[in-house]
TrEMBL record:
Membrane topology qualifier: Multi-pass membrane protein
Subcellular localization, as worded in the UniProt entry: Membrane
PANTHER family in UniProt: SPORE GERMINATION PROTEIN A2
Protein's name according to its UniProt entry: Spore germination protein
Gene Ontology cellular component annotations, sorted alphabetically: membrane
Similarity field: Belongs to the amino acid-polyamine-organocation (APC) superfamily. Spore germination protein (SGP) (TC 2.A.3.9) family.
Key word Magnesium present: no
Major localization listed first in the record, in broad terms: membrane
Gene Ontology terms describing biological process: spore germination
Keyword Signal listed: no
Keyword tags: Germination, Membrane, Transmembrane, Transmembrane helix, Transport
Amino acid sequence: MMKTPNERLSVNAYLVFFLVHTAQIGLGIVGVQRVIFVEARQDAWIAVLISGLWIHLIVFVICQTLKSSEHDNIFSLHTFVYGRVLGWIINAAVVVYFLMAYTSILLGYVEMALTWMYPDFPLWGGALILVLLTVYALYGGGFRLVAGVSFLTFFMTIWIVVVVFQPLKYAEWIHLLPILEATPKQMMNGVLKTSYTMLGFEVLYIIYPFVKEKERVHRYAQLGVLLTTLLVAAVTVIAIAFFSPKQLDVTIWASLSMFTIIKFPFIERFEYIVIPLWLLVILPNLLMFMWAMTRGGKALFHIKQKYGLFLFAGLSFAVAVIFEKRATINKFIDQVGWYGFWLSFVYPFFLYVFVRIKTWAKGSAK
């Protein structure tokens, strides 16, 4: 069982809002509109809202799971429920998920930056820069640094949301009609495609021990998810209204494409400002998932987190350099979304039941 961190390593509960929201908002929101639209058409925004409601329920279940047991993180919970051997295997699967999520964000951002700004720069070079940035930030910083970065980057980038609404003056609202035309199967496929963009809330399983006022964790986590849901739904509505259906079907980075119409007297290409700034948006993602990996390494191999940092940074870079073409990167990101769907959208309900049964059985045996 992992030791509970002392108070100097803990943060106030209100920071959970920023941690959850910034863990969710990252690369996916740049191009999620097309992915959902292909499945649910003009009802794509409804699929986002359904996904958001489901996540609210999952967050409630996660918090109830953590409160109902003396084991307040997912690694200890797995050992408690499944035993040492099976628990170790499942914990390893969780760490692999964090590794895949980190690498997918790494690859997605580098590919976007190279496509729009630096076409001749090697992908491995961009990946190396982001991995080194992650190591530099986390080495000696720990969880409090992750929380601080999430807080600061939220306020440093929230103004981008206002700019996203600029294309509304060109919107054709007829594109949103008719409403509720998608079949239940199409809507469910849309919800599934939303999963990658909305992932990140599962970090609650890792950060919970590091929050001081645990009775407030649930409230702030729900607020973070609410803001994410409203933001993703809003950019989806704007994209559907702005692009024609044929355009949106083939527009890979819809949010970035909308930025191209924004003009300022002193800036010729506004998207050239947004892409470097988007590094601040994904930075909390990178730090959070890498830090979660180091926690997993500590639980699995009983190594210090600073050693785990170098281990997982090296693994992430090694995986990243395997991918060269956009098609393989997209396939990898889809696999991460599918893996994350089962681990984050479905598994928490089973874990809650298993924890309750194990806790009840342990209490009855006394």
